[in-house]
Amino acid sequence: MSRSIAQQSVDELGGQSSVLARQRRDHEELDRLMHRYASGGLHAAERQKTLKEIFQLTFSHAFAEETVLWPALRRLAPDGAELTARVEEEHQQINELATRIESTEPDDPRHDELTADAFALIRQDIREEEDVLLPRLQEVLGHDGARLRRLGTTWETVRRTAPTRPHPGVSRRPPGNALAGVPLSAVDRARDALSPPSPRTLWIAAALVAACVVGAALRRKR
Ligand SMILES: [Fe+2]
Ligand SMILES: [Fe+2]
């Protein structure tokens, strides 16, 4: 039986740049930020800034999962379709909740209720990935550190150029999400006043996204 990635050493995960170690670091950062938001010790503006950081990390992280990781798991594992459908549904619910949170004033009691619901779903998504999907990916890749590191580099490149806001109307799967991702990312990052990725990173990400689109089209033809 495969072990949760939460219980494995960095070496077992394939090193610091493996996709499994990168996933776990982001999950830990999300947990830290959610605790900070809920701590009660923050001023209103700081609290909203923390919530924005949580959403930026959540949506860029999830977009790269949906375009790079879950298609790989569906290709490699016989039960990949069933496993990924569950987390895509969670991602969709988080997108819908975040959209509702953004349209609610921070002093409205519903704002905190919706935020608590979104945090519960983010935590559920993390558990499902660390305990089930990522160990399954590790298993089908034969615990091969080099492959886990290559996948980690691809995932990270897409994550750095991914949309940073909720988009519940966009497909959670390639090619729909990959096609929408580049223009949405530009708009989101301008609205969030984030520094744009370097031209080289953008070029690589565009090539990866194009590969996702072509791959999905070829699979559909077969
Ligand atoms: Fe994740
Ligand atoms: Fe996720």
UniProtKB/TrEMBL annotation:
The Hemerythrin-like domain, residue ranges: 22-137
Biased composition (Polar residues): 1-20
Coiled coil stretches, renumbered: none
Highest taxon in the source lineage: Bacteria
Region entry Disordered, spans: 1-25
Record keywords: Membrane, Transmembrane, Transmembrane helix
Membrane-spanning parts: 201-218
Any matching Pfam family: Hemerythrin
Protein name listed in UniProt: Hemerythrin domain-containing protein
Protein species of origin: Streptomyces antimicrobicus
